[in-house]
Amino acid sequence: MNHSSAIVAAGLALALVAGVTEARSQERACGSPDPVDTIDEMFDAIFACWQPPPGSAGLTLTLSFSIRKNGTLIGKPRATFSHMGDDAALNRVFVTSVLEALDKALPLPLSDSMGGAIAGRPLFPRFTAAPGGAS
User: Fold this and answer.
1) Strands 21-22 and 125-128
2) Do 25 and 31 contact (CB within 8 A), yes or no?
3) pLDDT band for position 127 (cuts 50, 70, 90)
4) Using CA atoms, how far apart are residues 16 and 94, in angstroms rounded to an integer?
């Protein structure tokens, strides 16, 4: 492992130890071809493709998945945490919106160093619908 890969891997380890990364405002457009070189940029690329459904404020879903060096998904994502509401139909729409966002964002345009550092490692993005529909 070269020096820059070691630095990226160390940053990745810190981010994974910290737990999850929550959806937040970002400047990146969904499907942007700009190379992803950090954990924050990777999650921004995914969250940029997510539009929480109306009425879903406060609903939360954390996924667990891994990706390959080329930015494609390994296996199927699984839910590791959720906070859903009483409306089963809205809950299904919310979960569908999260899975669709992941589908739209992939494959991620990972830089070579990021691809090497992140490949096969578990990721845990948390999708929480904010009041007013903003993520």
Assistant:
1) parallel
2) no
3) very high
4) 25
CATH for 3-133, among 1.10.12, 4.10.410, 3.30.1150, 2.40.128? 3.30.1150
Whether residue 61 contacts residue 81, with contact meaning beta carbons closer than 8 Å, is answered with: yes
Q: Which is it for the CA torsion 24, 26, 30, 33, positive or negative?
A: negative
Task: Give the pLDDT confidence of 75-84 residue by residue, as tens digits.
Answer: 999 999 999 9
Beta strands in the chain (DSSP E): 21-22, 60-67, 73-83, 125-128
Of the CA atoms within 13 Å of residue 44, those in its CB half-sphere come to 17
Helix (H, G, I), strand (E, B) or coil at 84: coil
| Rounded CA separation 111/125 (Å) | 20
